[in-house]
Amino acid sequence: MPGVPVRPNLGRRFGSVAGQVFVLQVAIVVLLAAGALLALVLQSRYDIEREARNRSVSVAQTFANSLGLQEALDSPDPSAILQPLAEETRKDAGVDFIVVMDTNGIRYSHPQPDRIGERFVGTIEPSLAGEVHTESVDGPLGKEIQAIVPVTSPEGEVVALVSAGMTVESVTGVADRQLPVILLVIAIGLALATVGTALISRRLRRQTHGLGTQEMTRMYEHHDAVLHAVREGVLITDGDGRLLLANDEAGRLLGLPDDAEGRPVDKVGMDHRMAELLLSGRVATDEVLEAGDRLLVVNQRPTLPGGRPQGSAVTIRDSTEMQLLSSRAETARRRLKLLYDAGGDIGTTLDVVRTAEELAAVAVPQFADFVTVDLADPVLTGDEPGPGADMRRTAVSGIRSDHPLYPLGALIDFLPSTPQARGYGTGTAELVPDLHDAPGWHAQDPLRTSQIVDYGIHSLIAAPLKARGVVLGVVNFWRSQKPEPFDEDDLSLAEELVGRAAVTMDNARRYTREHHLAVTLQRSLLPQDLPEQNAVDVAHFYQPAQSGVGGDWFDVIPLPGSRVGLVVGDVVGHGLHAAATMGRLRTAVHNFSSLDLPPDELLARLDNLVQRMDEEGDSTAPNGGVLGATCLYAVYDPVSQNCTMARAGHMPPLVVAPDGTTTISELPAGPPLGLGGMPFETLDMHLTEGSQLVLYTDGLVEERSRDIAEGVEKLRTALSHPDRDPDASRRAVLDALLPSRPSDDIALLIARTRTLGPGRVAQWDVPFDPSEVGGVRNLAAEQLAKWGLEELAFTTELILSELITNAIRYGAEPVRVRLLFDRTLTCEVWDGSSTAPHLRYAATTDEGGRGLFLVAQLSEHWGTRYTPEGKVIWAEQALPTADGPDASDA
């Protein structure tokens, strides 16, 4: 059909540059015409509306000043006179209405007679003030433009108002009648502009051959890529053997002059074999030609450039450089892979030795055949090395194990002439391409160096491990199996590899130093030797976390009356701050226990202390203070076999009966230390002799691979065996629960209870009468004689006399006396008063006030503790023999 090709032809025409320019210009002309039309219409309507306002004002003023208006207004029926007069004037003046009204706005005339007598629609106040006022309103005739003028008397008083105006419909009608003329003018202009644009587009289409923008851009990009971007020479010749085109790469490969294009191929100075191939015009595919010292791969195809006689299109590649580039790319890939592997494999732990081993392993066999890492000896303990420090071989890795290099762990004093010593001293890597010709290195150990050379090791790079300006050691890269020696490129790679590893090594060194400091501080703050006491047999264990020392601690505190305090605590966090905080809390527990406080009161005071520590803060500590702490405090009395305990956010203790039954105590859980606001509750337990009380921190039972409930159950299982002493129980617990690399501190305290039998305790009730003091003294002397402590009889009688007399004089009933024969002799006087006695220093003329002073002088220690029934005043005396009796003798 003849109409079929029209649409594709139009698509190609308007898709070309010329077509797009034509469409764009036509669109611009249309937009300009539309804008002009809109502007003319708006301006016309504005002018007409302004003319309507002016006409309305003129008509209203003329009518207001007309002769006879005053007489008509004063007549008995103004409407009868004014209505016909206004209508006649309205028609002659070309307005739509003339309305005469009184000062109240009541109409005397209107084009619609039925509106006469009604109130005028509009604003009359300005006209009542003597002004001419124009406005647009919605009136009886529709949307109106009206003017209101005052009618004044000869005296200047406003006696009536006249309004004249036109409807908006009349105004727009005038504008609409002008619209065809405007449209005709615009249409003529649009037609002329379109014809001119079409003529310009036709000329542009001939010059661009009808191509579209994308086609022209693509042609330019292809031409530019062929000539400049590709690393391949391009030549185009014509049928006469002339060079039409040669890109930059072809000129470089063939050595062409700048003016080669347009000259005969055999006259531009290229190799004659290449010129013969180009002049032959034959097809060539990947044909290799020698051109000077290059091997060129040539492809040639016939073509018709520019419609001229047949010529050729030729591409040229330099295979020599391609091979070199390929080799370099492979070398760069291997080096990047080495550095990538080093980034992932070095520094997996914060251990200096392990980091050195990872560094040695990552470079074999990718970079070197053998790698040795020699660190300054102080680095292994976390210290910064000084100049001239001895080196210790920390890591060795190689393709074989029978090498003659210094063995692992050897302490090496490198001579100043060796590359290792020079590198360590200057911080600059040393390259030794040929170890045969290295007299400075041979001087270190002639026998060993000759063995190394005979072994086949022939090249060395000694790269110092340098971080933050401090040289930590030297990494030695040795080459034996690879025949080529190390070169400058290898030296730069070694420096980059070692430089990255040095940062990790320094981090590990600083961590090691901090870890050693924290461990040292932690262990110095923990009890070195547990105090001697007969209340419990104790086994304990402490191990810091692998990743950092925490704040776990334990303690055994002897208390008056042969009692003992057992403590386990845990400070949240790791590092020096946690260890120092632990030391402060342990000291506080010692101080508070010296006041003989019950467990709940001791924890309450410890809670207040932690709150004050948090308020004071520490700018060097994480988050500025103590993040939290837990504690468990228990007091065991071997006389009553009663154990009173309380805990602040800590794990509940386990109780192992003599028959092996293990239970978790139902000790109420108090809040962690430092929260405040809540009291701590105590639990009293009666422990049969031989029972084991197990106190521990959460690091023992909590681990990533198991939850805490599972850990507690494993702890119960490990402890549920009869006839085990505390040491055996400790070993069983550690075998079952101790991880190889603990992530948290572990503290364990196992106390097996003992009793102070009746043979070591004497107790009497004292009548509340001072005359009974002598009888109690006699009973005490007799009891001391039975115990073989006659040497202490005199001082004991004096102490009891003073304490009993004070209890009867200042205390309350009942009064009771108890003597305890343990590692010391303890005298206790109980009474029902809570009044605390205090030590006085009496003057020489005073008759009293020396009682407690005398007790303090005769005893080693004395003090007061409170009970629910009152108080106890106690005094301890050292036994005559160096070794006190064992509780098992009771």
Write the layout of secondary structure elements.
Layout: H1 6-15, H2 17-64, H3 69-74, H4 78-93, E1 97-101, H5 125-128, E2 133-139, E3 142-152, E4 158-167, H6 168-208, H7 213-229, E5 233-237, E6 243-246, H8 248-254, H9 272-280, E7 284-291, E8 294-303, E9 311-318, H10 319-345, H11 352-362, E10 370-376, E11 391-398, E12 411-412, H12 419-426, E13 430-432, H13 439-442, H14 446-455, E14 459-467, E15 470-479, H15 488-525, E16 536-543, E17 551-559, E18 563-571, H16 576-594, H17 599-616, E19 629-637, E20 642-648, E21 654-656, E22 662-664, E23 669-670, E24 683-686, E25 692-696, H18 698-701, H19 708-719, H20 726-737, E26 746-753, E27 761-766, H21 773-787, H22 793-810, E28 815-821, E29 824-831, H23 851-858, E30 861-867, E31 870-878
Parallel strand pairs: 20-23
Antiparallel strand pairs: 1-4, 2-3, 3-4, 5-6, 5-9, 7-8, 8-9, 10-11, 10-15, 11-12, 13-14, 14-15, 16-26, 17-18, 18-19, 19-20, 20-24, 21-22, 21-25, 25-26, 27-28, 28-29, 29-31, 30-31
Helix pairs in contact: 2-6, 10-15, 11-15, 15-16, 16-17, 19-20, 21-22, 22-23
Model description:
Helices cover 41% and strands 24% of the residues. It contains 23 helices and 31 strands. α11 (352-362) packs antiparallel against α15 (488-525). It is flat, with a radius of gyration of 56 Å.
